[in-house]
Every structure is written in structure tokens, then in C-alpha cells.
């Protein structure tokens, strides 16, 4: 894997070759990563994995025609050949009046913000094995646990670099660490499975494998003897481990591609109150040690903390340069790019700000409701906002969390769900997308 400076040097050569062959403009990206992982099951080593990959993508423009070519061969000859193919393809491509590099005057010049996303540590395989074993041992020690699907520990590092023909060059690296366990409780037809995991940029921030394993075991045991639930309308409470999925649906609905195609249920909602008054949703690419922190976006534009929802009101779209041109707007700094295609958009460290009530206060007046801890399937229509997903969790009775429930479906419409949502005060930054416990009124719960 190349270091950031070496990666930029390769990109400069690729862009220079494309320009020499007749490209009016070009950009190139490098992505390299290496990772190690260990998986154990029932106290025995099952698998050791090691992967290394690197690739360069070249995008060229001839007028308003463009083409993308990628190569995993990073030699000078291979990159020159890739640039030649890209130029030849661009000459035959259809015109796209919105295509082009990001506005030159908007490019970020550095120095990059100190995000502290690479700790430089190198964890040996034997240490990863010890972590995986410790996680599984802690899970199997929980009373009621009967079997294990295994535990894993991993470490990795990645380098990302981007250069353009109109003045941008930037690169950064990031480290990652993880530990997980998947555990079975009960026996026969009454078995239940659950899991836990944690990931971090710095090894020092990773939860202990014992804590992760114990949580996985406790979750599995708590799901034993699930009850059936009759169909009806009731309050549904989303646990933080699944509440972030609602933010994912929100982000997809405000992406530039969905808005330009008119395929979003929020396409006419700019500036409107789509969440309860006072609620805010933030995307923060500059969070120190954040799982998706980045100093610049996939087109070389600066990134910044953004209020996507401010006091309940939708403030804007997630736009790359092409979708911004189509909408007569400006790119938002959310462009995201792979090596084999043009930019799209993505959020970074996305979260909903915490509310003012505790979790217990949030459910105290629920006579009969549902706490969702697992969601199954992808039953969301981003065009209409219709929402229907398989779920499992726990019954709420008279303000208390009681028996486990399974084989149910929760349904509603995201527009109504967003407006009838109340967050608790228990926001924790554990994932790349985070939300506190969320209560939503008037959802339909379909049981067996």
C-alpha cells in the first residue's frame, strides 16, 4: 500500500498523461487498504484473514463528455494505458451538460484539520486472537447461553488520495479496529441469537472484548421465550442500535440524485418543518477520531459540520457538483467517490441531537407499545416514504419493558414518522450514524 505522498505522485502522473492525450480536464483517486482479522468459535481458531488491495481510478473530460477507468496495476505503463483508454472512451461518450470537476474557486487548499483518525498502531495476529477468544469466553459465561456463532477481532489501515487537473491534491490515512461476537441462547426450537460489536479509529478507544462479549450474551438470553403480538396501532420505540437506520433513510431522501430525479418523498420539503420543532440533525465530518471523518470530500471541496435539519426544518440537500449544477445550486461538500465511477454523495458522522427526556421517562406513559431492537429486511420506498420492516424486540406494558417479542412487522410512512418522533437524552457516539432512543407515535405493528 502506498503512503499518501507516493499515492499523490502516481495520481499526478496519471492526470498528466490524460492531459497529454487530449483531455480537457481530469481527476484521479487512489484507494488502498490492508486489514487483518481473526475469527474463533467455541474456543478454537477458525480463520485468520489478511487482505491488501489498492486501486486508482481516472476520470477524464473532453468537453462535456466523460469516462472513468480504474486499474489495480499501479505501474507507470499501466496507468498510462488506463489514461489512454479513458480518453478514447470519453470521445465516444454522450454529452452531459452537468458533468465537470468541482468549481475551482471552491477547492480546499489545506492545511487539513487535525482529525486524529490514524493512530499508527500495528496489532499482531496473536493479540487479535486473544481478543476474539476473550470476547467469546465472556459471552459464553453468561447464564443461559448455549452455543456460539463465534467472535472476531480485526485491525486495518486505509489511504485515500485525490488529485485534479485544476489544482487540488490531498491525501489522508485512517486506522480501524473492531471486535464482535454472535451468540446463541436456549435450545431446540426455542433458540435465539444476538450479537454485539464495537469499532473505533484508535485502538485505545475500542471497548474491551469482555464487555462486547458479555453484551452479546446478555442480548441473546434476553430474547428467549418471545411472545406473539396482536396487530394494532401503538407507540413504537427504536433502541439506539436501530434508531440510526431512520437517519439513513432521511439521508437517502435528501441526496442530490434522488432530488434531481424527483424520486424522493422529501423532494418538495426544502425549508419545511419535517421533524418536530426544536429537533436537529447534524453531519460532522470533522469529528476528532470519528468513524467517517474526512478533511475534504470526493471532489476536493472542504468539509464542515452541517445542520441538515435545524429546529425541525430541512435546510438543504446533499449535493455533488453535477447535481448542484442541475438544481442551480452549489455543491454541499458531501461528494463521495469510488474508483470506478463519478461522484455521488454520502454523509460522514451523521447524528440526531439528543432530546431532554430520559429513556425511562420517554416510555413511562406507554400503556402498550413496542421496543424495537432489531430490524429485518429493506421494506422502505424512498419515493413514497412508505415504511414496512420485519422487527424483533420487547413489549412495553404500563411504562415497563417486559417480555421479548419476535416475528412482527412495523409499518408507517416516513413523513408521518419523522413528524411524530421524540428523542430521548441517551445519545452515544458509537456508530457512524447515531441517534438516541426514539419514540414514534401511531405506527402499525403486525403480529402473527
UniProtKB/TrEMBL annotation:
A molecular function GO annotation: metallopeptidase activity
Pfam family, one: PmbA_TldD_2nd
Record domain Metalloprotease TldD/E central: where: 120-224
Similarity comment: family membership: Belongs to the peptidase U62 family.
Lineage: Bacteria, Pseudomonadati, Pseudomonadota, Alphaproteobacteria, Sphingomonadales
One Gene Ontology CC term in the entry: cytosol
GO biological process: proteolysis
Metalloprotease TldD/E N-terminal domain boundaries: 35-90
Domain Metalloprotease TldD/E C-terminal: 231-447
Name of the protein in its database record: Microcin-processing peptidase 1
InterPro entries noted in UniProt: Metalloprtase-TldD/E_C, Metalloprtase-TldD/E_cen_dom, Metalloprtase-TldD/E_N, PmbA, TldD/PmbA_N, TldD/PmbA_sf
Region (Disordered), start-end ranges: 328-350
Amino acid at each position: 500500500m502506498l503512503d499518501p505522498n507516493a499515492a499523490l505522485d502516481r495520481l499526478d502522473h496519471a492526470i498528466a498523461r490524460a492531459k497529454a492525450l487530449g483531455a480537457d480536464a481530469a481527476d484521479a483517486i487512489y484507494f488502498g487498504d490492508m486489514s487483518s482479522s481473526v475469527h474463533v468459535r467455541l474456543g478454537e481458531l477458525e480463520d485468520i484473514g489478511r487482505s491488501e488491495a489498492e486501486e486508482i481510478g481516472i476520470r477524464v473530460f473532453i468537453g462535456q463528455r466523460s469516462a472513468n477507468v480504474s486499474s489495480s496495476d499501479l505501474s507507470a505503463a499501466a496507468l498510462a494505458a488506463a489514461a489512454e483508454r479513458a480518453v478514447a472512451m470519453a470521445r465516444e461518450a454522450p454529452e452531459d451538460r452537468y458533468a465537470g470537476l468541482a468549481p475551482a474557486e471552491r477547492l480546499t487548499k489545506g492545511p487539513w484539520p487535525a482529525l486524529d483518525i490514524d493512530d499508527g498502531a500495528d496489532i499482531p495476529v496473536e493479540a487479535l486472537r486473544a481478543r476474539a477468544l476473550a470476547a467469546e469466553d465472556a459471552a459464553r459465561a453468561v447464564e443461559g447461553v448455549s452455543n456460539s456463532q463465534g467472535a472476531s477481532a480485526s485491525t486495518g489501515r486505509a489511504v485515500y488520495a485525490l488529485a485534479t487537473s485544476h489544482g487540488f491534491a490531498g491525501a489522508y490515512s485512517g486506522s480501524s479496529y473492531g471486535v464482535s461476537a454472535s451468540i446463541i441462547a436456549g435450545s431446540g426450537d426455542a433458540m435465539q441469537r444476538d450479537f454485539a460489536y464495537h469499532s473505533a479509529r484508535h485502538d485505545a478507544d475500542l471497548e474491551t472484548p469482555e464487555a462486547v462479549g458479555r453484551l452479546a450474551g446478555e442480548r441473546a438470553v434476553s430474547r428467549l421465550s418471545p411472545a406473539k403480538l396482536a396487530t394494532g396501532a401503538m407507540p413504537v420505540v427504536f433502541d439506539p442500535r436501530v434508531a440510526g437506520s431512520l437517519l439513513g433513510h432521511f439521508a437517502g431522501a435528501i441526496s442530490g440524485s434522488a432530488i434531481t430525479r424527483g424520486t424522493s418523498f422529501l423532494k418538495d420539503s426544502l425549508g419545511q418543518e419535517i421533524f418536530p420543532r426544536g429537533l436537529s440533525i447534524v453531519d460532522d465530518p470533522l469529528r476528532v477520531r470519528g468513524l467517517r471523518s474526512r478533511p475534504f470530500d470526493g471532489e476536493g471541496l472542504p468539509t464542515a459540520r452541517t445542520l441538515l435539519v435545524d429546529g425541525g426544518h430541512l435546510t438543504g440537500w446533499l449535493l455533488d457538483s453535477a447535481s448542484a449544477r442541475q438544481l442551480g445550486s452549489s455543491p454541499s461538500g458531501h461528494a463521495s467517490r469510488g474508483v470506478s465511477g463519478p461522484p455521488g454523495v454520502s454523509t460522514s458522522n451523521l447524528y440526531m441531537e439528543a432530546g431532554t427526556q430520559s429513556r425511562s421517562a420517554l416510555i413511562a406513559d406507554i400503556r402498550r407499545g413496542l421496543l424495537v431492537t432489531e430490524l429485518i429486511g429493506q421494506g422502505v420506498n424512498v419515493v413514497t416514504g412508505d415504511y414496512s420492516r420485519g422487527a424483533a424486540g420487547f413489549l412495553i406494558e404500563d411504562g415497563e419493558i417486559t417480555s421479548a417479542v419476535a416475528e412482527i412487522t412495523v409499518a408507517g410512512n416516513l413523513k408521518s414518522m419523522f413528524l411524530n418522533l421524540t428523542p430521548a437524552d441517551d445519545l452515544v457516539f458509537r456508530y457512524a450514524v447515531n441517534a438516541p432512543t426514539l419514540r414514534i407515535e401511531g405506527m402499525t405493528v403486525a403480529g402473527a
